Amino acid sequence: MAGVSTDHALANRTANKAAEELHKAFYPAFDNKRHVLHKFYCAESVIVWNGIEVLGSAIDQWMDQLPDSSHIVSTLTAQTIKEDYMGGQTSVLVTSSGRVTYDYDGSRKLHQFHHTFILAEVEGKWKIARENYRLSETDATAIAK
Q: If 108 and its partner were Cys, which of 41, 48, 128, 143 is the partner (CB 3.0–4.6 Å)?
């Protein structure tokens, strides 16, 4: 089997580092400091949240109205996206999944989640350009307080 090229190995390391940085910062902010989430997005960002599309400046308001949450990430993967596909821009596809508990008016409900991000390098920092978040039901319908 042929060896991995140096460029390819560097791209993989870059993607993995971007995913780890996102994981370590995004989910704690989402669960505990939603007022700082705007720092993760660029002005042209688009999220699709359980099928509902939210654009740019409306993302802050959308996130603020979501119930309190607690995420446990069980999988995290990343790969670079060829610059040819992204208009010459360096980009990374990150996927994560796990369990999340949302507090719906005092009733905590457990869900599984799947989260996909496309990160774009903007002024030397990774920003979320596109995001898709999907919840699914679990066998447990509610968790006691």
A: 143
- Whose structure tokens read 């910062």? 25
Residue 80's Cβ-side half-sphere holds a number of Cα atoms within 13 Å equal to: 17
Instruction: Name the pairing type of β-strands 107-122 and 125-137.
Output: antiparallel
Whether the Cβ atoms of residue 96 and residue 115 lie closer than 8 Å to each other: yes
37: left (phi over 0), alpha (psi -120 to 50) or beta: alpha
Burial class (CB in 10 A: 0-12, 13-18, 19+), 123: exposed
Work out the burial of residue 6: count CB atoms within 10 Å of its CB; fewer than 13 is exposed, 13-18 middle, 19 or more buried: exposed
CB-side neighbour CA atoms (13 Å) of 63? 25
Q: Give the model's pLDDT for residue 6.
A: 63
The pLDDT of residue 63: 92
Q: What is the mean pLDDT of the chain?
A: 87
CA quadruple 104, 110, 114, 120: dihedral sign: positive
Cα angle 28, 30, 36; round to 5: 95
